[in-house]
Every structure is written in structure tokens, then in C-alpha cells.
Fold each of these.
Amino acid sequence: MQPEILLTLSAGSVRPLLANPQAFATDDLKLPQSVFELPEFVATDLQLRGLNLPTDLLKGFGLPEIDKLRDAADRAHCPVLLVFEEPAIDFTERGPNWAKAIERLKRLGLAANRLGCPSIAVRAHAADTDTALEATAAGVKLALKELDKFDLNLLLAPHEGLTYSAARMTDLIKKIGGFRIGSYPSFAHAYASGDLENTLRKLAPYAPAIAASVRGFDEKTGEHDGYSLEVCVDCVRSVGYGNTLALDFVGRGEEAAGKKTAKKPAKVDIIGALLKARIQLEAATSEPELALDEEEE
């Protein structure tokens, strides 16, 4: 029997909704008006079982706001499972910027601890050289000592340079060592790498969580754009993965690449795409039922 995979939401998916809920309003859904209403919406309307939070959604929060969000998550039975710092950190730095980075990680550690969150994820900014690998490993070890007081795991998300290839990412994780370090892969990165299946298979064993990137769906066929979500699930399950998949709407094409176009982009049905992805992922992660009570013909 395969281990159960928990389906959650990467809250970065709904940034546009939180910024302007009226623009996405429908008769069917009561959209969250703030991040404090997000856990109830995720659990009730999206039928997902947890949250990954990018740190920009916590901007301006003090401990009272952090505690308020944790209480909202507890009431909705939708815990915050990961806090994700999206700007990359240079772990090879040892000057003034390094002190700022460590202080930032300590603040993130405190916030994650108050949220009852087991992990924080970051990107490592470094050139793809052996020297940078050694320096990054040393820097991450120093960071882990600071985070250890908060009882947190540190996950590395793929980033251009040193951690872009799965092989180099695993080399780095092995170099760092210990049980507090891991990876935070994504379907989108695996697809962009040009070797989706091997990338996911290599990184999944080190991953307490994986971003199940959602680009969009073909209106006629219902197929996911660019890659099959089912294939992605098969890849990670083939190496025994049984942790969480965080649905993460990233858009597609030029939108996903962050490119600007001359034309005004069409309104995207983010919630519709997330619901379709949830249905496909539920089907891909569920165990088939054995009809033992059926009579033989």
C-alpha cells in the first residue's frame, strides 16, 4: 500500500484574489478578504488540508497577527505547514549582508514556530561551482544552528545556478548533512529542467513537501498544460513519496515566465484551475478500492 499524500495549497496561488477579491467574485464562492480568512476558504471551498505561506503575505505582521492566523488555521483544521522565503539568499556571503540574512532567517524561524509550522523553505543564490557548493554548505550549516532553537527543518527550493540541477541539489544536501535539511521541489522546475521524471525522482526522497505547480488546462480536452499531473505523481510515488503536495497556480506560457505582453491578459480562473488540479491529483494519489464483497459471476 502506498503512503497517503496530503493535498494542500501554496497560498501564493491566490495573491490576486487577496489583493482584489471583488475582481474574482462569483455567486458560488465567498472569497477570502484577508489572509486570516484563507484557512477556512482553503479547507471548506478548495477542500485542501493545509497551507504553505510565502512570506510576503505576512508583511507587516507582528506576533499578535501571527497568533491570530495560527488560531484561524487551528479552527479551520487547515494548519500552516511551510513558510517560504522567495527572494534567494546568498549562503556564501560572510560580510554585512550575511548578518542581515541570518537575522532574517531567525525572524522567519520565530514566525514559523509561532504558527506551529515544521519547515521553512528558501532559495540559495550561488554559482554552479565546487567552491560555491562548499561555501553554501558551510553557510547553511550556520543557518541551521540558528534555526535549531525553533525546532525547524530548512528546505532548499531549486534556483538558477548551483541548485538548478537535481544532481547538484542532492550533492549540496548530502554535503550539509543532518536530518534538518531537505528539498522543496516543484513540478514547474522539473518540467523546465527538461528532465521532469528524473528530476522529481531524485529530489522527492529529500522533500517533506513538493509544489504541485498548476499552469492551466485545455478547455476542450481537460489536459494540464505542458505536463501531466498524473505523471508527476507517479514519479514521486515510484520512490515512496508520501508527504504533501501543495497546489501552486503559476500560470502558463509568457505569464509563467514573467514576461510582459502588449495585450492585456485575459482574466484567469485561478479557483477553477485549482479545483481541476485537486480533482486530478486526488484521483492520482488515491488507492483503488478492492471490491471484495462482489459476487463472482
Amino acid sequence: MSKIEKSLHSHYDALREKGFTPIYLALCGSQNYDLDTEHSDVDTKAIVVPTLRDLALNKQPVSATIKFDNGEQCDAKDIRLMFQNFKKQNINFLEILFTQYYLVDANYQDLFLTLRARAEEIAHFNMFTALKCMYGMATEKFKKMEHISPASEEKIKQFGYDPKQLHHIVRLREFAERYASGEDFGMCLKSYHKCYLLKLKEGHFSLNDARAIAQTEIVKIDKVVNEFKPEQAFDCPRAEELLNETVVSTLRRSLKLEVF
């Protein structure tokens, strides 16, 4: 069993020990982009289902980040919240439908294998919204690039900026351009310029160069968004229906398993 697979099983078991009911857990982050290094953690996102009591008492849907002692983390979300993020075309969530590393509860395997098989439809549900999301993510990365936080303090002291944020900005620009051109979402996850992105991530550029690169890339993403035409969008009329029906079927099944 690989390091990634061991982490997935460990995260899954930890969620159950904490009282959650995970039904789908998947790798997220650098390994999915083939941009991981020896220092990269294994992070995951998990879809959990509410109990009958949660629904009856109208409890807030679960949205929690579980952090582990080894630096890894798992973002767990109620299926209703996770699917809202799919509809918002947030690429950080959509990627869990494409990764080769995932676990699915046997009771829901048919539903989630169908979802994965139709992942491109879901990832093209609203291309303009997806592109705006990429632009928003890039601008947030730009703000964080020189902002000192517990996670970035060491890097900013060393380089004057956080190289990880810079490489994300460039990655998002490439993703936006390729996605807008009609390339499959799954293909866009992996860069054509891996070596360059790894150099950016490792801090091979001065602060002035990093600023110039980031500003140029954000302008390019903005251009992609503004020049995107409705006729370029994929026709995915049943994507929303698929997501809605999967939520309903999953909750119906989970309640039946709990009660009976």
C-alpha cells in the first residue's frame, strides 16, 4: 500500500472515530497535479452524510477540517454542502471526482462511480462560473503571497514572499486557458510546464520577479474570463439533475441503513 493509500485509510478511520459517517473520501492537492515534492503532505476531502437526528433537529450541516499530527488534514463536508461547491464549479472540490486515489463506502459505490463517470459534465456545468472562480482564487493567492501567517511566515522570511502561492497563480492561469479552450477538466489538472511550476514553488525567483509574474498571470486570467463566449460552453443539461438526484438517493439510502 502506497503512502497516499495509507493516508486515505487513516483519514477515513479517523473520521469514523470522531463520529462522522464518511461515504466518499478522496485525495486533493499537489499529488493530483503531479506537482508534489518530498515535503508534500497528503490532504483529503470527504463527503459525509447526516444522521436522522441531525436532520430531525435541523442541525447545521457538517463542515470541518480535521488536522493530524503529521501535518496532513481532511476537509469533511456534508453531502449537501459538497454538492453546492460542485455546482459553484469550485475546482478545488471538483478535483476529487477525478483523482485516482479515493475510497467509497460499498453501500454507495454505484452512485459515486456514476458520478465519477460523468465528472466532465459536472465540471462543465457552468464554465463561466468556473472561470470566475479560478480568477477569484488567483487574486486570493496574490493577496496571500506576501501576507505573513503561521503557515507562510518561514517562507516569507526566506524569500520575501510565499513561493507556493505564486506557483498556484501560474497553475490557475494555465488551467483557465486550457479549460476555456475546451480541454477536458481532468487533463487540465496536470500542467504542461511541470518543471517551471516546481521552480516557482521552490522559490527560484526574486521578490520583484515574483510580483511581476503574479501580476501578469492575473491579468491573463482576467482576459480569459472577459473573452469567454457563451457559445464556447459545453452543453450539460442534465448535470444539475444528476447532482440533485445523487443527493436525494444518498440520503434516502443512508436513512434506510440507519433505521433498518
